[in-house]
């Protein structure tokens, strides 16, 4: 892991309902290339909002987000170009229901990266093989189980060859028996050196795979550090309270 | 009109079995003959039917094109207009949105008969192209309803679909085109078919500007044959058959589209 920050967040604030709700109250954060950052915290703590600000699915109210050194919150920045390099996986998969698995995965590379259909398809099939779904290439999303859907969602994001992957509670909508298969894929991705920011309630994953854990509460980062320390010796009372409830 | 000439030809051409029918059935056969067969009057009817179909399909195309554009303007304004800092883009979108709202209000608030007469007799007063005026009138009218149908369809697609498209790097327009609109169309297809059927029947007022559609054809035959029942029954039957046929066709299409999701 190099120390170069691929994502840097400065003074990030996000207000909803015209300022009545302050989801983020000033967050500073860096993610190094190759790092697996796990964001934990109680619901409503702002962790999903923070993640969604990283690729500007939420427009920050104040503060700046830098990706590979470029200020992507600058109105002149072309966010669509930056997003191609930032894969995102959602809690509810968000696969395109009117397309086959293969089409879900080849649409963006073909339209945005101008890959030929044959190229895009062979890359997609290679990715599907990596997650054990080679035989589902021609299935429609509604024919897949939750775990399969999420694995397809992951490889759909990977089909754009992103520099960083953002995971927004990727296992929260899954039946318990399917959580493992998705976490395994994410773990393998981390081992392959992908930069990842993961919002999750899976403390086992955070402890085992995470390089660094960030604990958020009330729209701010309360505490951060290596998983070992956060889980065994948290320094803040709020972190202790949260961990005592979830562990 | 020479009644005896009609009678002569009728007696010469009617097969014997008709002449031996009971009086009420015989009378209807004679009425049918006078309405459609004599003097090749069915040709007026066929021409009217052709015009009705042409008018409906062209108006449908114009209506869908207009409807999609207006729906996109309205949806985009709701999503991006309010709350954004003023820019030339926002100004243009706001203007387009205001124009769209006026369009929807005026078109949906006035009868289509009045609209087609205004278009033919006032706006296109220097042209005598009735078909063109009809297509514009019914297309513009239908577009207003199609716009609201499609807007509803777009809004029924989960926000997550839009976010998934954007997160891959697709722009707003590309996300709409590749991801949202295909799904929205599937949702609104039954409602669009309904709108199409309404449109098909609404074109019956095209006769107000002298366009010989199916209804006006029936009316012309009524005038020359002195028959009321047969020409009107014929027109009604043809409308009904067309509506039933398109309903059946769309049912098939819908089932085919649905299989792609199961």
For the structure shown, list the relevant keywords.
heterodimer, A: 247 residues, alpha/beta, six-stranded mixed beta sheet, four-stranded antiparallel beta sheet, 10 strands, globular, B: 262 residues, mainly alpha, 11 helices, elongated
Structure explained in plain terms:
The complex is a heterodimer of chains A (247) and B (262). Chain A is an alpha/beta fold. Chain A contains nine helices and ten strands. A six-stranded mixed β-sheet of chain A has the order 6-7-8-3-9-10, sandwiched between helices. A four-stranded antiparallel β-sheet of chain A has the order 2-1-4-5, with helices on one face. The longest helix of chain A has 16 residues, at 176-191. Chain A is globular. Chain B is mainly alpha-helical and 262 residues long. Chain B is elongated and about 80 Å long. The A-B interface holds A 55, 57, 80-81, 83-84, 86-88, 90, 92, 94-98, 107-108, 111-112, 140, 142-143, 156-157, 160 and B 158, 160-161, 163-171, 174, 178-179, 182-183, 186, 260-262.
Give helix and strand order of chain A, one letter per element, not per position.
EEEHEEHEHHHEHEHEEHH
Largest interface, counted by CB within 8 Å of the partner chain's CB: A-B, 26 and 21 residues
The SS-based structural class of chain A is alpha/beta
Low-confidence stretches of chain B: none
Q: First CA to last CA of chain B: what distance?
A: 63 Å
Concise account of the structure shown:
Chain A is α/β, with parallel strands linked by helices. Helix content of chain A is 37%, strand content 26%.
């Amino acid at each position: 892991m190099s120390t170069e920050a691929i994502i840097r967040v400065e003074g990030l604030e996000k207000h909803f309902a015209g300022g009545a709700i302050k989801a983020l109250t000033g967050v500073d954060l860096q993610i190094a290339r190759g790092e697996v950052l796990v964001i934990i915290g109680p619901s409503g703590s702002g962790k999903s909002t923070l993640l969604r600000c990283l690729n500007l699915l939420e427009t920050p109210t104040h503060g700046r987000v830098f990706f590979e050194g470029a200020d992507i919150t600058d109105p002149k920045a072309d966010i669509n170009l930056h997003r191609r390099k930032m894969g995102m996986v959602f809690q509810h998969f968000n696969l395109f229901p009117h397309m086959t698995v293969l089409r879900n995965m080849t649409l963006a590379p073909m339209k945005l990266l101008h890959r030929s259909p044959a190229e895009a398809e062979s890359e997609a099939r290679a990715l599907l093989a990596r997650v054990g779904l080679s035989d589902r290439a021609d299935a429609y999303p509604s024919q897949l189980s939750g775990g399969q859907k999420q694995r397809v969602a992951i490889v759909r994001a990977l089909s754009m060859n992103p520099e960083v992957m953002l995971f927004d509670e990727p296992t929260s909508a899954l039946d318990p028996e399917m959580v493992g298969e998705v976490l395994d894929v994410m773990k393998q991705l981390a081992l392959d050196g992908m930069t990842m920011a993961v919002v999750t309630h899976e403390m086992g994953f955070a402890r085992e795979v995470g390089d660094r854990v960030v604990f958020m509460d009330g729209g701010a980062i309360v505490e951060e550090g290596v998983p070992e320390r956060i889980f065994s010796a948290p320094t803040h009372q709020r972190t202790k309270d949260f961990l005592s409830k979830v562990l | 009109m020479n009644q005896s000439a009609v009678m002569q030809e009728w007696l010469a051409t009617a097969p014997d079995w008709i002449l031996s029918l009971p009086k009420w059935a015989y009378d209807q056969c004679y009425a049918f003959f006078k309405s459609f067969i004599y003097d090749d009057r069915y040709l007026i009817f066929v021409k009217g039917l052709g015009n009705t179909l042409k008018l409906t399909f062209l108006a449908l195309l114009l209506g869908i094109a207009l409807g999609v554009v207006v729906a996109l303007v309205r949806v985009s304004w709701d999503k991006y207009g309010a709350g954004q800092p003023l820019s030339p883009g926002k100004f243009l979108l706001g203007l387009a949105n205001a124009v769209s709202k006026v369009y929807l209000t005026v078109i949906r608030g006035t009868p289509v008969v009045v609209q087609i007469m205004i278009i033919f007799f006032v706006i296109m007063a220097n042209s005598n192209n009735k078909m063109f005026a009809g297509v514009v009138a019914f297309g513009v009218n239908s577009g207003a309803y199609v716009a609201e149908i499609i807007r509803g369809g777009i809004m029924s697609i989960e926000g997550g679909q839009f976010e998934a498209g954007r997160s891959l790097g697709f722009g707003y327009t590309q996300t709409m085109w590749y991801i949202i609109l295909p799904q929205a169309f599937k949702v609104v297809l039954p409602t669009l078919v309904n709108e199409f059927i309404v449109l098909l029947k609404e074109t019956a007022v095209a006769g107000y500007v002298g366009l010989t559609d199916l209804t006006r054809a029936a009316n012309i035959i009524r005038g020359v044959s002195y028959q009321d029942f047969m020409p009107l029954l014929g027109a009604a039957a043809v409308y009904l058959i067309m509506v039933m046929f398109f309903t059946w066709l769309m049912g098939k299409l819908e089932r085919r589209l649905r299989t792609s999701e199961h």
